[in-house]
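User:
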Amino acid sequence: MAERLLDGITVLDLSTFVTGGFCSLMLANQGAEVIKIERPGVGDDIRHSGPPFVDGESPYFWTVNYDKRSVEIDLKSEAGLDALYDLAESADVFLQNFRPGTAERLGVGYDDLRERNEEIVYCDISAFGATGPWSERPGYDLLVQGMSGVMSVTGEQDGDPVKVGLPLTDLITAMWAAFGITGALYRRALTGDGEYVELGMLEATLPWLTKQAGKVFAGEQPSRMGTKDPVLAPYQTFETADGHLNVACLNDRLWTTFCEAIDRPDLPEDDRFGTNADRVEHLDDLEAEIEDALAERTADEWMDVFVEAVARSLRRSGRSRRTGPGRRVGPVQRTDGGPGHDGDRQRGRPRGPGRRTPPELRRPGVGIPVAAAGTR
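Assistant: Predicted structure:
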């Protein structure tokens, strides 16, 4: 088997639910040996999140915990703590998402672990950070989506705030944590020093509000816009004769070829729709014009039209498929169709548990997409 980026790295994961679990899954996917430390008789709470349940266990648990090893350790017992210390002496990474102060009370804080392994990279995830007036408060994805402003810009314009339909802030935090851990491992390779990596879910989410932050910096108030985009148009979902299509025209060239494909070459000549700035200023008028055109055919028929339009454009320009204008529309699919798309499957993306999971213990999962070191 080809070497992976993190082959030889051992991770002790004491976290529960998604923030730590998805973080250590990302590390495992790149070759790290992840040992999940769980409470005796209970395990990770996410094992019990459901229904649905399969063989008495939540499949949600599998999606963030495949390709790991697991051991039950009672951290409140002397024998359990000694067992953890033994594991930590040879570990590279220690990951936990206790409420601030809990790890120290249990004897597994950064100082406790560093006494036994000066080179360890210790990652401390919490809801609101290790310091500050909210540091000891618990927090979960729903709460952080609300407090970060994500829900204030999600949903229909005249509707209520809406939670994003996946655990967005958990996953955001997990990715930042994995980024911090790998950065600390790189620094350790240069200096030989361990590191304390700390982050909170709220502060991890705020940098992702890029377009909304831009409007705030310009003195404007971001708002809910349905599927519309605050700075690009057309960049939203439109109805067809039988369903929906997503249309994404990121520049005026794509807009012009889109209009040709829907047999409305007059639209770019309209003063309201000539440039992206014009289209953003006249979003409602633009939406009406495009939906009138798309209502003439089904979603599948329109997909065929746009595939052919791309091919014609490539032939005219002499560009390769990679450098051509590309598709500017896509279907709105259901998650039970794969998940994914034929284009993803053709790239050989992993669809299930990794190399360390014995056949009798394998459960379905969705693979991490990073391809590196010649592997997927």
